[in-house]
Write a structure and sequence with these properties.
alpha+beta; eight-stranded antiparallel barrel; 18% helix; globular; binds manganese (II) ion
Length: 434
């Protein structure tokens, strides 16, 4: 598969075209991962690691990665690390090499745009990052050796839609926390919950956190066949958005809730609000949305989401959706926003925490294809998220416990409508009747 893309890539300049460089057709669970660990050693730095050939190729980046292409960040190559290190977050004890707290500042998967062996050997590697914070195209280039310093490279963001220009604040400042636990470096230093020993015979105890994209390493996941008629989780109506930590907040969308079952490229859509109704869901079975689901990099999956049509301002519009459902020509305007993953490649994920399910889902749906979109959330800050959602005239906010499993009718999902939207809805219904 990778070889088939060589000509495709050779003909394109991916700094100019928004086209994808192409992912070697691997399943999500076998993609090469990358991780950036923020390390409060004697000097704060960011350890940038790319999985390759069974190890993590590693560089220490003193200032951390920057989204500004003019910022060429020094990256000093360090020793290869074991794969298990990618999920390590904790404290390296005093007296050990690199003593200090470590958090997983970003992680995801990476795709080389060239033969990575040649890239590493020649000292220039172009690649794409699919992380939570770092995305788009990057280059690592080795500097000419000066005296003893032969391990100095530069980490550079290339120009694309993910790049930030000029005076944009640095990502390391605006998003300082762990993508794994939401904690700061200081909080990890204070908690001392896990300790990594680098000395000894090199046999390190593997961390107990899940590996990127691996359903079998997620706590609460169990091996099971793909379910046929799962019960969709419901949200309980609330008056106020919970403002504490540990909640994910998603914008409520005006659309058709669907459960999407994918089995070896075969897609079945079911109306989650009306199990008996097949009309709307079946109208979508030959749309761009179904094609996008069929192309997901997995064998089997069960996704929960909402089919919507966005208006020109990016707001989901129920009337536009009605039109698109009724008109085969307009059907490809319908987008499935996926916000939960109940099953992946033989593993039932309903017993796992929402945080882990969404992380797997984000990796699964990270390709930007028409018809499918990952449903982003904000963690914490419920009150301000609600104000912003209502200001943007959205129908409301759905709040979900980050640590909760997927269970029908549990009170771990709350929906808080925007008052203006409620009033407008009433007015619309009233005028529709008259
Ligand atoms: Mn380090």
């Amino acid at each position: 598969m990778a070889a088939d893309l060589r000509k495709y890539r050779a003909r394109r300049n991916f700094e100019r075209t928004p086209e994808p460089a192409g992912d070697p057709g691997q399943s999500v669970s076998t993609r090469a991962q990358f991780v950036v660990q923020k390390h409060g050693a004697r000097r704060l730095h960011y350890d940038f690691r790319l999985e390759h050939d069974g190890v993590l190729k590693s560089w220490a980046v003193p200032k951390g990665p920057s989204l500004d292409p003019r910022e060429r960040r020094l990256a000093v190559q360090t020793e290869d690390h074991p794969i298990e290190y990618a999920t390590f977050e904790g404290v390296i004890p005093q007296g050990e090499y690199g003593a200090g707290p470590v958090i997983v500042w970003d992680r995801g998967h990476w795709v080389p745009e060239m033969d990575p062996d040649k890239g590493f050997a020649n000292g220039k590697l172009d690649f794409t990052l699919h992380g939570e914070k770092l995305r788009g195209r990057w280059t690592l280039v080795r500097l000419a050796p000066r005296g003893k310093e032969k391990d100095n490279w530069l980490l550079i963001k290339r120009r694309d839609r993910e790049a930030h220009g000029d005076d944009a604040p640095e990502l390391v400042d605006t998003l300082p926390e762990s993508v794994l636990t939401g904690r700061s470096l200081d909080e990890v230093a204070a908690s001392r919950d896990r300790v990594w020993h680098s000395s000894g015979d090199g046999e390190a105890s593997p961390p107990q956190t899940p590996q990127v994209g691996r359903p079998d390493t997620v706590p609460g996941a169990r091996p099971a066949p793909l379910p046929r008629n799962p019960t969709p989780q419901r949200a309980t109506a609330a008056h106020d958005v919970p403002d504490g930590p540990g909640w994910f907040h998603e914008p409520k969308l005006a659309g058709l809730r669907l459960l999407a079952r994918v089995a070896h490229g075969r897609v079945t859509l079911r109306d989650a609000d009306d199990a008996g109704s097949r009309t709307a869901a079946s109208a979508l079975s030959s749309s761009a949305l179904a094609a996008a689901l069929a192309a997901l990099p997995c064998d089997t999956a069960l996704l929960d989401g909402v089919a919507v049509v966005f208006d020109r301002t990016g707001v989901s519009d129920a009337v536009l959706l009605e039109h698109a459902l009724a008109d085969a020509e307009a059907r490809d305007e319908i987008v499935l926003v996926v916000f939960d993953l109940l099953h992946l490649d033989g593993w039932d994920l309903r017993g796992a925490a929402l945080r882990a399910r969404k992380e797997l889902l984000r990796l699964l749906a990270s390709h930007r294809v028409p018809g499918l979109r990952y449903g982003e959330h904000v963690e914490g800050h419920g009150a301000s998220f609600y104000r912003e959602a209502c200001r943007l005239k959205l129908p409301g906010v759905v709040s979900k416990r980050a640590d909760a499993p997927y269970r029908g009718d549990a009170k771990t999902w709350l929906v808080t409508p925007c008052r203006a939207a409620k009033d407008a809805g009433k007015r619309r219904r009233r005028s529709a009747k008259t």
